[in-house]
Amino acid sequence: WSTVCCVISCAIKTSCWPMRRRITRHSNRHPPMTLRINCRHGSAESYVEVLQASGRGAKVLGGAAVRLDVPCNVRDLPGFAEGQVSVQDFGAQQAALRLDVADGMRVLDACAAPGGKSGHLLELADIELTALDIDATRLERVAENLSRLKLNATLAAADAAKPDSWWDGKPFDRILADVPCSASGVVRRNPDIKWLRRPEDFAALGLQQAAMLDALWPLLASGGKMLYATCSIMPEENQQQLDAFLKRHGDALSVSSSAITALPVAIVSPSVVCRKITSHAMRRLLLSAVLLAGRCWILRTGRRQSNSSCAAAYGWSWISASCRGRSS
Ligand SMILES: C[S@@+](CC[C@H](N)C(=O)[O-])C[C@H]1O[C@@H](n2cnc3c(N)ncnc32)[C@H](O)[C@@H]1O
């Protein structure tokens, strides 16, 4: 997956026009409005029927994800106030799924605000969730979102890189590190990034991400799983970060997940997708997953069990087909 990142990065930095045009075109389009249907309330298919009955076109993207034909005010969505549905990109919906939480687990969402993934984790299983964010004001959004979903977590305004100040010493079975990043993969949703981001930001963010990962790692239970996620397309924040982490932590391992491996292929070369995926519908789905919703995985982290057998474990990083600065 570092190859994927390098290709994208090179495509942006060099004059690889087809790729650059592709990334540019999609980063300048209006993003779609994608919903996550709360699996405690019903399925994506049944919600699409409800939408259609109210005159709105929508389609199931897969799992709990539904894309509206035309974006609308959330207040107009049936069941929104009751927590039946949330707005969340298709790519972002993969994170909580990949953490494969189960009832009774102790889970940490280390960078939780505004709470999109916290809510999803809590919908998936009856877990004991700690939702942490350094920004107390943004943490209020987590409280609001969880209140609407009628789900509970322990909220803490604290620095994930300084667990001494907030950790009770009990290990977590799962940790989600959805770290602050350059957001170079979500330019379409945040166009100001093109003007605000500076080249020197990447190194600084990389150091911050590494410090956070190192600080969180000892909090993970033996055999636990930590998921690393960014919304950046930069190798420094993705594969290179993972490689460096694995070098620093001999008890960590990276485990691949086959479920989504086709997605980055869709970004890199449609011809590769054509070869591998004959179904046009499937090809379109994969392309939209990457190009419209953004984000796909790159890296994983895990942890060896103390008895030396390898724990199934992984982490994620996300990229999307948009680029910073040079595309507009
Ligand atoms: C990418 S956003 C998280 C999005 C969130 N996981 C979701 O799905 O809604 C990154 C978050 O990290 C928080 N953050 C930045 N530095 C932090 C730190 N040192 N400790 C904890 N949170 C931090 C930011 O305030 C921001 O809310």
From TrEMBL:
The active-site annotation reads 231
Positions annotated to bind S-adenosyl-L-methionine: 111-117, 133, 159, 178
Compartment(s): Cytoplasm
Q: Name one Pfam family in it.
A: RsmF-B_ferredox
Q: Which GO terms describe its biological process?
A: RNA methylation; rRNA processing
One example GO MF annotation: RNA binding
4Fe-4S as UniProt keyword: no
Which InterPro entries would you find in this protein's record? MeTrfase_RsmB-F_NOP2_cat (IPR049560), MeTrfase_RsmB-F_NOP2_dom (IPR001678), RCMT (IPR023267), RsmB-like_ferredoxin (IPR054728), RsmB/NOL1/NOP2-like_CS (IPR018314), SAM-dependent_MTases_sf (IPR029063)
Arranged from A to Z, the UniProt key words for this protein are: Cytoplasm, Methyltransferase, RNA-binding, rRNA processing, S-adenosyl-L-methionine, Transferase
Q: Out of the domains of life, which is the source?
A: Eukaryota
Q: Which GO terms describe its cellular component?
A: cytoplasm
Domain SAM-dependent MTase RsmB/NOP-type positions = 23-304
Q: Where does this protein chiefly localize? A: cytoplasm
User: Mind telling me which CDD domains this protein's record contains?
Assistant: AdoMet_MTases
The UniProt entry, under PANTHER family, shows: NOL1_NOP2_SUN FAMILY PROTEIN _ ANTITERMINATION NUSB DOMAIN-CONTAINING PROTEIN, NOP2 YEAST -RELATED NOL1/NOP2/FMU SUN DOMAIN-CONTAINING
Which family does the entry's similarity section mention? Belongs to the class I-like SAM-binding methyltransferase superfamily. RsmB/NOP family.
Report the protein name in the record.
Answer: SAM-dependent MTase RsmB/NOP-type domain-containing protein
| High-level lineage | Eukaryota, Metazoa, Chordata, Craniata, Vertebrata
